[in-house]
């Protein structure tokens, strides 16, 4: 499994060159080399989602996640809209609290016709309800 930093077209090309240079490849390895572009295109969204999820999870663990609001609110909102690490992005917005994070959750919670998918809008609405009850999901 490649590291996220290796998931670039240059990295894919390097991997293919390296493997093609080997004297003997097993049938599965030969199949991967022959179809690596399709495989990488399929893996990139999963790696991107896992990375975003991990970063948002890590930020939410901070004792004061609101201190990241200046840059993290916009990033979390964009990730929810693009459905990249959306669940943890919503969790981070809830953990940050504050007017900017709440406004982002309100924008994301509009259904139908809002910027987020139906499921993500529903999750944002649930987070707003938790914040309204004085709770955050930590």
Estimate percent helicity.
Answer: 55-70%
Listing every helix as H and every strand as E from the N terminus to the C terminus, the arrangement reads HHHHHHH
Which regions have little confidence, pLDDT < 50, spanning 5+ residues? none
Largest sheet: none
Q: Give Rg in angstroms.
A: 20 Å
Overall geometry = elongated
Total number of strands: 0
Q: In whole angstroms, how far apart are the ends?
A: 31 Å
- Estimated structural class: mainly alpha
Task: Report the portion of residues in β strands.
Answer: under 5%
SS field, number of helical segments: 7
Mean pLDDT: 87
Task: Give short descriptive properties of this protein.
single chain, 138 residues, mainly alpha, 7 helices, 69% helix, 0% strand
Helices and strands, with pairings:
Layout: H1 9-20, H2 27-34, H3 36-60, H4 69-81, H5 86-96, H6 98-108, H7 118-132
Helix pairs in contact: 3-5, 4-5, 4-6, 5-6, 5-7, 6-7
Overview of this protein structure:
The chain has 138 residues and is mainly α. 69% of the residues lie in helices and 0% in strands. The chain has helices at residues 9-20, 27-34, 36-60, 69-81, 86-96, 98-108, 118-132. The longest helix has 25 residues, at 36-60. The two termini are 31 Å apart. The model has no long low-confidence stretch (mean pLDDT 87).
How would you summarize this macromolecular structure in one to three sentences?
This protein has 138 residues and is an all-alpha fold.
């Amino acid at each position: 499994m490649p590291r996220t930093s290796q998931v670039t077209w240059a990295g894919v090309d390097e991997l293919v060159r390296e493997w093609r240079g080997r004297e003997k490849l097993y049938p599965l390895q030969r199949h991967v080399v022959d179809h690596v572009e399709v495989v990488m295109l399929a893996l990139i969204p999963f790696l991107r989602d896992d990375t975003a999820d991990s970063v948002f999870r890590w930020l939410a663990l901070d004792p004061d996640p609101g201190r990241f609001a200046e840059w993290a609110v916009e990033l979390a909102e964009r990730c929810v809209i693009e459905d990249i690490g959306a669940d943890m992005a919503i969790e981070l917005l809830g953990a940050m609290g504050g007017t900017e994070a709440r406004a982002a959750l309100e924008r994301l919670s509009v259904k139908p016709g809002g910027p987020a998918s139906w499921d993500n809008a529903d999750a944002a609405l649930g987070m707003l309800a938790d914040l309204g009850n004085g709770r955050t999901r930590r």
